[in-house]
Amino acid sequence: MPSAVNKPDVFPSLTPEIILSFQFSSWYPKFASLSIKSTVIRPLTRDFLDYLDADGVFMPEGAEDIPAESTLSDEEDGSGYESDSEDEEHRKFSFPELDAKIREAVSRYGAVFPKLNFSSPRDAAWMLPASSPLKCVSPADVYLLLKSSDFVQHDLNLGHVFDGCESAPRIYDLELVLRKWYPVDRSRELRCFVRQEKLLGISQRDPNYYDFWNESGTQIKVLDSVKTFWENNIKGKWPEAGGDYVFDFLLTRDLSRGHIIDFNPYAPRTDPLLFTYEDLHDLLFVRGDDYTPQPELRVVDSPSHPAATRNAPAHQHNMVPLEALTISSGRGVQDFAGALRDEIRRSMQDDSDDD
Ligand SMILES: Nc1ncnc2c1ncn2[C@@H]1O[C@H](COP(=O)(O)OP(=O)(O)OP(=O)(O)O)[C@@H](O)[C@H]1O
Ligand SMILES: [Mg+2]
């Protein structure tokens, strides 16, 4: 048993360099053959940052067939409140070069899944049809998701990105990542926690209950598949982060292999899902240094599991922009999202008629 003196903290210390090693463009080149095909657009223009930063959900000109802008902004809530910056309110954006790069990626991949350096707009998935979450086939789809998401805002804010670091980064450039879109089967997604190059825990990623996770042999097989994949492909390849990282993994249908979806810092910002970081700390500490532990696998093992019964829709807090309440009455989420999209397009049309 290791002595208390050697006991590591629950979280490893963070530096800007460690955080930056988890941005997409840093890790992807090393693991591209084990992950999803992706294109990184970097750096982005100052104008595009201003657009992402601006209030309201509206389209740049030229992002779809109708070359116009919508101004469905936070200010237009019927309260008579006027924006204190006319320039800001009427500023028009257009990104023809970026539009062209997005269209190129769409034609190369069929459809794209967008994210920024670290975060995807998964809290805005409800904006596009539920049958194909986060599937983008036009620049307008990409912009709609990015503008509707609180999660991607994390990547714009240096205070958030480097939260927990003692010093500031030397350089941080925003990037747009366009990944080939796949109909991901969420039941086969796992999140795997590695501390000091020990694979400690593996958690089901989707909080829903799936029968097959209780089938005899499934858990043993999956543990073996993940461990083998990790040992052969990932272990020892994270010296930048001192061997502390969390990776997201999508198992193949036969559960024998898989693909890397993402890497995340071993830090409070990364959701520990069915673990707590204290649980993981115990797994590291209790089992000691010279013993190679079998990782612990946690799944939602019954429909009454607390994770499965927290049945509020995911990211509910971000589902209803204030300005949209007036068109929401009595509709299901999908109807409502469709109505909101129509509303954004309608105001784009109105604006172009005004011009
Ligand atoms: N290329 C893709 N095509 C379709 N769906 C995808 C793709 N990549 C990821 N997804 C889905 O979107 C979810 C979120 O993706 P990802 O892990 O990249 O986002 P994230 O913002 O890094 O999430 P987190 O904040 O949990 O780390 C995944 O769990 C997966 O279900
Ligand atoms: Mg991630």
TrEMBL record:
<protein>
    <submittedName>
        <fullName>D123-domain-containing protein</fullName>
    </submittedName>
</protein>
<dbReference type="Pfam" id="PF07065">
    <property type="entry name" value="D123"/>
</dbReference>
<feature type="region of interest" description="Disordered">
    <location>
        <begin position="63"/>
        <end position="92"/>
    </location>
</feature>
<comment type="similarity">
    <text>Belongs to the CDC123 family.</text>
</comment>
<dbReference type="GO" id="GO:0005737">
    <property type="term" value="C:cytoplasm"/>
</dbReference>
<dbReference type="InterPro" id="IPR009772">
    <property type="entry name" value="CDC123"/>
</dbReference>
<feature type="compositionally biased region" description="Acidic residues">
    <location>
        <begin position="63"/>
        <end position="87"/>
    </location>
</feature>
